[in-house]
Predict the structure.
Amino acid sequence: MRIRWMLGVGLAGAFAQVAQATQYLTLEQAQHAAFPTADEFRDAGAVDAAVAAKLGAPAGWAPRVFEARAGAKLLGWFIADQALGKSEMIGYALALDPHGAVTWLEILDYRESHGGEIRLAPWRKQFLGKTAADPVQLNRDIKNISGATLSCRHITEGVQRLLAYWAAALAARPE
Amino acid sequence: MSAQMIRRARPLLGTVVEIRLHGVAPRAADRALDAAFDEIASVQECMSFHAAASDVARLNAAPAGVWLDVDPRTAEVLALMRAVASRSAGAFDVCVAPRAVDAGLLPAPSARAPDAAADWRDIELGAGARVRLARPLWLDLGGIAKGYGVDRAIAALLAHGVPRACVNAGGDLRAYGAAETVYLRAADGSVAGALELADAAVATSSSGATPTHWRGTRGHAVAPGRSASVVAPQCALADALTKVALALTPTAAQDVLAAFGAQAALHDAAHGWQALARAA
């Protein structure tokens, strides 16, 4: 275990944004991860507005629905949607088998609309541990943040809505 | 940054869990990622406060004096819980759940009411992953299981030969193989500090405007606006010790932290940072 604390005490100084924008998977990567044997992802078009209204979906709700196919065979559905976190949009996707059971669920991307600010200098460095003599290298590519837990409640609600949409609008659709 | 970096995220443990791997070929990475995420999902199934079939839900409905078989991972977390609760004289106590229910933070888990006198000492561990309650009680492992899930994921990645990885469950984070910079968020959401760690875990807890943390089952509520970031060898330990660092005086907290090889940084708006670290 090696640790070095960098606890800024001075309030004046340079600022750096730690707003996050991370893409884990593109839509295409996610489709192939969810359905490795599919040879076609057929865009099912815009969601049925009447069904969306009946489900109490928020204005502008526009999940992207695809039929995953291998030749003539329907493997299931791939649906990508967005959920609002605290101050960020979370893109996620799920895969459903032909019976509407969730077989795959992952985050596609994550965008924080306004990041926290970090004061990089002046630091009153409180170095502890063996590496205390090393120069401080703040990693600008990877933003690990500890604290203020991001809730996935809105993703859970979004998944429930997509399952309800599947039952109401997609389940009965002929192959 | 390694060209072979792969990161993926899934909604688990009530938050977004991100796993980042370095130096692994894509197919091997997929296998390692699936194993690590599956391990976290299992921890969630065993220790969820909300899922009716979880070990925690079964214990929360169980009568006193009856042995229940639980998953070995649940038993491991309960053993660690007892160690931290004992060393902190109950400042960390998973039996604060009724206070969280009263505060509206958690739903009542069962119709069977908890004994008002119950605390962590009433959760007895038997041989072979068996648990018995000395009094009827409500427990919530939310303050330790998230970190434990991170530890299990790290173990899965190591077992798959991944040379460098970082698992971050909504701020409960553990990394190995290279130094990681981790920014620390204070209670007001601002990023006020950072740390560099390698082969270690960090967790942060903060107290909100309305009480979210208490010193044990009968102690005071933690004052609003405080945050504690704890670094420890294991993430479950870091997770649990954040509650100790918030609830105890800095001097008392430091004794507990040192006993587990951990360090902490406390933050509030009035005082800024205070390090609780004793050179090993």
Remarks:
- The mean pLDDT of chain A is 77.
- The first helix of chain A runs from residue 27 to 34.
- Strands of chain A lie at 2-7, 14-17, 21-23, 40-43, 64-70, 73-84, 88-96, 102-112, 117-121, 144-146.
